[in-house]
Write a structure and sequence with these properties.
CATH architecture of the largest domain: 2-Layer Sandwich
Distance between the termini: 90 Å
Shape: rod-shaped
Largest sheet: 5 strands, mixed
CATH class of the largest domain: Alpha Beta
Number of helices: 12
Strand order of the largest sheet: 1-2-3-5-4
Number of domains: 2
Radius of gyration: 42 Å
Length: 413
């Protein structure tokens, strides 16, 4: 039964206030009957002390919703007790101390809390000095009441400040989590957008070039049409596979900053240059230094930069050749894609596409996302150059020869 009562008290604020009021009455009533050694007994009967203790303890039942009313009743009871000649002790002032603590805890204005506390202390000291016995020590009339009044006020203010601080910390942490979640969502959207751009732009550019080559061969070299058609089918199939894998990233969690199991890398550089060769661009790959292993994200970034750079050569340059250079050092890979065709192919003017032109921006963002950097611009002798520096993994290992009949990118001339 005691356990049930304890659970009820913990779950009900009204039960907590009632229990506190009863316990304080059991303490304050005997404390109000205390008489200092050598002092005469007060003239007021004992039942007045019981009545005043009952009034001050009953006022505490309303301290949550009406803290000022509870404080006023408890102060009036304490002043009346002091005016009747009774000694103000820490026991008899217990209800007033609880009322002051509750008032300080629930009042926003610091000046109001201080004014109430000092006003109550001054009122009690004045009453004690005027109505108290003359032979009572001065410290019992002044220092004692002031200390027991100011202490709960300071404690309530400190608890209020601590709660406000904890609320501010929780609010800041919640805002930080929300901002971090929005940032992660924005980064993920940007990553998916880069993947979709790289997949669609490269493959559509190749398909367009192969379709143009096919239209040209139909008039003069029909025997090569079947080969170009096969390459066109391969290009569109590869585009569909990579597009499916990229869209599949949206269905999985914890993929930020990593590549999918089917994500391309430098190991597929030979297939990439072969596909551009079928579109009329002869891309050669040269490797300097000992090939070393990149992180999955950096490997994907290197492949996408080469892919985008060669796509731009196909779409914008008048040249038929491009060079890819991979230079490995002890801590980074320097990747360079250059061409000699500085002039832009002549074509009918077309209106600008809203939101277009994300190729170079995407390459820079990719390089920065893995801790690297990228520069792109015209070459002094003509043509265009894309240069990226990507960090290697901390435990870089030499790349093993690629299986199969195709030569590794590092082995290509």
């Amino acid at each position: 039964m005691i356990a049930n009562w304890q659970r009820h008290v913990r779950s009900s604020p009204r039960a907590q206030d009632t229990t506190s009021a009863l316990l304080l009455f059991a303490v304050s009533f005997p404390g109000s009957l205390y008489v200092a050694t050598g002092s005469p007994a007060p003239a007021a009967p004992w039942w007045t002390a019981a009545l005043l203790s009952c009034v001050s303890c009953t006022a505490l039942l309303f301290h949550r919703d009406h803290p000022r009313t509870a404080l006023a009743l408890a102060t009036a009871a304490a002043v009346t007790s002091a005016a009747s000649g009774r000694l103000l002790t820490v026991l008899s002032l217990g209800p007033l101390m609880v009322a002051l603590y509750s008032f300080a805890l629930r009042t926003d204005h610091n000046a109001l809390r201080r004014s109430y506390a000092f006003g109550v202390a001054a009122l009690l000291m004045t009453t004690e000095i005027i109505a108290g016995p003359a032979d009572r020590p001065l410290d019992l009339k002044t220092v004692g009441p002031a200390a027991w009044v100011l202490m709960p006020t300071a404690l309530g203010s400190a608890v209020r400040l601590r709660r406000a601080y904890l609320d501010a910390v929780r609010e800041h942490a919640e805002r930080t989590r929300e901002e971090e979640a929005r940032r992660r969502v924005a980064e993920e959207r940007l990553r998916i957008a880069r993947e979709l751009h790289d997949v669609t732009a490269q493959h559509l550019a190749l398909a367009n070039a192969q379709a143009g080559t096919l239209a040209h061969l139909l008039r003069g070299q029909p025997d090569r049409v079947h080969k170009i058609l096969a390459e066109l089918a391969t290009t569109t199939s590869a585009a569909l596979r990579e597009l499916k894998a990229t869209v599949g990233l949206l269905r999985h969690e914890d993929t930020e900053g990593t590549s999918s199991p089917t994500a391309p890398g430098l190991a597929r550089l030979a297939d990439l240059t072969a596909s551009f060769r079928c579109a009329g661009l002869d891309a050669t790959v040269n490797t300097e230094g000992e090939p070393r292993q990149l992180t999955p994200a950096a490997d994907l970034t290197a492949f996408r930069i080469v892919q985008e750079a060669l796509t731009n050569v196909t779409k914008h340059a008048a040249t038929k050749t491009a060079r890819v250079r991979l230079a490995y050092s002890h801590d980074r890979l320097t990747l360079t894609v250059t061409d000699d065709g500085g002039t832009v192919r002549s074509a009918p003017p077309t209106p600008p596409v809203p939101g277009g032109g994300f190729g170079l921006v995407g390459m820079r963002e990719r390089a920065q996302s893995v801790g690297g950097r990228l520069r792109a611009g015209p070459r002094p002798g003509g043509g265009f150059e894309v240069r990226a520096e990507l960090p290697l993994s901390e435990t870089a290992l030499a790349i093993r020869p690629c299986p199969g009949t195709r030569a590794c990118p590092a082995d290509r001339p």
